[in-house]
Specification:
By secondary structure, the protein is an alpha+beta fold. It has nine helices and seven strands; from the N terminus they run H-H-H-H-H-E-H-E-E-H-E-E-H-E-E-H. It has helices at residues 8-61, 70-105, 110-139, 149-222, 228-244, 253-271, 296-307, 346-358, 388-392; strands at 251-252, 275-283, 289-290, 314-323, 326-334, 362-368, 372-380. The strands form two sheets. Strands 2-4-5-7-6 form a five-stranded mixed β-sheet, covered by helices on one side. It is rod-shaped and about 110 Å long. The protein starts with 7 loop residues before the first helix and ends with a helix.
Amino acid sequence: MPKAVCTAETAFRPSLFASELRAKEFCQKLLTFVKVKRITLHILFWFTYLLIVSYLNIFLLNTSYAELPWPERLFKCIVPELVMLPVKAGFGYYIMYAFLPRFIYLKSRWKLYIECFVIFLITMLAYRTLLFGVIYKYIDPTSYPPQTFLEEFPRYVYRALDIFSVVGLAATIKIFRMRLQHVQKEKQLVEEKLASELHFLRAQTNPHFLFNTLNNIYVLARKKSDSTADVVMQLSKILRFMLYECTKSKIVLQQEIQLIEDYISLEKIRYGDRLTVNTTIQIENAAAEITPLLLLPFVENAFKHGASETRFHSVITIVCTEKNDHLHFAISNSKDDEAQSHPAGLGLTNIKRQLELLYSDYSLDIDDSDSMFHVKLFIHLNSNAPSELYHSRR
């Protein structure tokens, strides 16, 4: 008799099905909540409108009812509005959900205008039918209008204005809501675009660093240096950090400093006695955070265009201080007097763009003189990306 075999896949299926079922139930509950909330807001809008119009009818507009007893006065002022409310609401919902969406996106609108005019005529016909068939006949027979068209025309204008007043208010709210949704969606798209660009810039930084370091290992290997193994070990330590830590949006500033120190140790193995690195590190807030790999490219650039290109003793000076979430980072490297100025490499170009995307309060000064290359960077670590960036990127 064959034995039942329970694989990991079959054991996992019930839990997976249960998770999908719970997710589906949650989505259904969320949709139900949104629908109920939306319906409640609509009811609240029409109820508020009815209260305002009833108040105006009772105390300001229908002064002829002032002598009537309060029950009859309330009846004649409120009930007609209740009778007419479905007509007004119907035309209002047509404008909000049928006319406005097409009006915004359609290029040729003449058919839409004709449709709107026909719907308006139907609305006025329904309005008049309720007026004569219900209100003037059963609710308020004493206010029966004149029979001639010219005498009745001003009342048609008043009824049209009455309809357009509430429909205009509802349409204004709808337009404002549509505009708000459009702005939010546009902002979300811009944020996603900027996030993709930032991810691309970071993805370029790691290979750029790796290629430069592998080139250093290649040079040591060709020289058959005994330091090659130490360089590979130090490189694996740095790459481990990049693999597991640099996927985060922020890391502790001290981790970035430690990465720089590891990189300096790596370069010291290569250059030996012909390189002097002076570092001054003062971090006041141990919990201060920074975007990963934001400072390392400046250090890498100092070695690449300093120690690697000079024939003499090279000096690199690094000063990094943090106080009240204000970071000051300065790095300078010596170079040969006859060395040509280099345009900004891939690493520095990427860092400039990342600073623009990530921080609103920062400054970056680069001075390339005959014998020294200076970089001064200031960052307010708690500042966010500038809001103007969204508008400039549309």
